[in-house]
Design goal:
alpha+beta; Alpha-Beta Plaits; DNA polymerase, domain 1; 3 domains; four-stranded antiparallel beta sheet; 14 helices; 20% strand; binds magnesium ion
Length: 419
């Protein structure tokens, strides 16, 4: 008997599958995008458009997520590229989570298309882990029209590794006592959290498989890869003590978080994401005519660890810029330099007092002017749509939505008549 039973649910080629399922089931379009070389990508006319997701037939042309659309078209001129539709993704994600919650309330949504479930002790209800996982997978396919992989293990890391075995529409187990047979023969680059830079260093040490890594002396790894060497060594040996962390109840206050399509590895991109989150929060605060006193930033790393940090502001505010500056400061104090998966900004200590601020001798910021600027932007967006005004810094950042989190009704509607 295994102490814990953890499932990792992962949608196969999520953005692409969701788009394909929508076209087939709601628009009656053929062929199914999943059966031809196709991809979800940014606007080609802007040239900076990048591939966000690809079909399995597109993989045969070595098309990579994150590469420029122009490069992908060079590899495969007949590649069908469809625009992203975030509203559709959010709907599909929510519909899938609703199904998962019917099996357990211990659900940790890990990204827009991934979740961990703690299924410990559910055997009497749903049968053996493989039977339960198959039921979940089939129910999602039957009711929502897309496929998932389910990885089963007694540890989160191993469940996630198992979910990456053969795709699509599969259930795989990778219990601790199976790692020798199922995980150790795999190339070391397949290990979660081994990036291409680490992979090169490991190759230089003669480490080719996950098994080689598991058998390597920890000191050797530490000398070459520092702390990260120890982390991947313990992963290779199947050690991971993290638990499924069900969603915390909504904090009192105004918050917003997002899972980023790519791992963020630099502070300036992270701060752009924080700005996009803050834009939406600021707008809600001003709409409700409140100010907040507390700002908190949370980071979830690629290795499941998460951290958060908060501070009290000198004065209550609803100014986007001020909240953003505070969140950047918190971010700088908090970030350990590891790749980031998920970022959140929360605000609290809500105050309805909208009286003017006390002026300070040492602070010459014109808060009144900043407030008026925010209000003007809110009014324009109200009348002409959320995209009518955008901070200039977002113009180069096609894959970061300038107002992240909530989806205003007027946006993100793909015009299917054109496609
Ligand atoms: Mg996926």
């Amino acid at each position: 008997m295994h102490k814990q039973i953890i499932f990792h649910i992962d949608v196969n080629s999520a953005f692409l599958s969701w788009e394909a399922a929508y076209r087939v089931h709601h628009l009656g379009r053929t062929p199914d995008l999943r059966t031809i070389p196709s991809a979800v990508g940014g606007d080609i006319s802007k040239r900076r458009g990048i591939i966000l997701a690809k079909s399995i037939p597109a993989k045969k042309y070595h098309i990579q997520t994150g590469e420029p659309v122009v490069d992908a078209l060079r590899k495969c001129p007949e590649l069908i590229i469809v625009p992203p539709n975030y509203e559709l993704y959010e709907k599909n994600s929510k519909a899938m989570m609703d199904i998962l919650y019917q099996y357990t309330d211990k659900v940790e949504q890990y990204s827009i298309d991934e979740a961990f479930l703690d299924m410990t002790g559910t055997q009497m209800l749903f049968g053996s882990p493989v039977i339960a996982a198959t039921a979940i997978k089939d129910e999602i396919r039957r009711r929502l029209g897309f496929t998932v992989n389910v990885g089963i293990s007694d540890k989160k890391l191993l469940a996630k590794m198992a979910g990456d075995f053969q795709k699509p529409d599969r259930v795989h187990t990778l219990f601790f006592d199976e790692i020798k047979e199922k995980m150790w023969p795999l190339p070391v680059g397949d290990l979660f959290f081994v990036g291409s830079a680490s992979e090169k260093k490991l190759h230089a040490l003669g480490i080719r498989t996950i098994g080689d890594l598991a058998a390597t002396d920890k000191k050797t790894l530490r000398a070459v890869l520092k702390k990260h060497g120890e982390v991947i060594h313990s992963f290779a040996n199947g050690h991971d003590v993290s638990l499924v962390e069900p969603q915390a109840p909504d904090l009192k206050g105004y918050g917003n978080s997002t899972t980023i399509a790519f791992d963020v590895t630099d502070a300036s991109t992270a701060k752009m994401v924080l700005l996009s989150l803050t834009e939406t929060i600021g707008k809600r605060l001003r709409k409700d005519q409140v100010r907040i006193h507390m700002v908190s930033v949370s980071i979830r790393y690629h290795d499941f660890c998460s951290a958060s940090h908060q501070c009290m502001l000198q004065d209550a505010t609803n100014i986007t810029k001020e909240i953003h500056v505070a969140s950047c400061k918190l971010f700088d104090e908090l970030w350990n330099g590891m790749p980031i998966r998920h970022l959140g900004v929360h605000t609290g200590h809500v105050s309805k007092d909208m009286a003017n601020r006390q002026l300070s001798l040492f602070d010459h910021t014109n808060y009144e002017k900043l407030e008026k600027l925010d209000q003007a932007v809110d009014r324009i967006r109200e009348r002409f749509g959320s995209d009518s005004v955008m901070r200039a810094s977002f113009l180069d950042q096609e894959h970061i939505d300038h107002m992240n989190g909530g989806i205003p009704k007027d946006r993100r509607t793909v015009d299917y008549r054109q496609k």
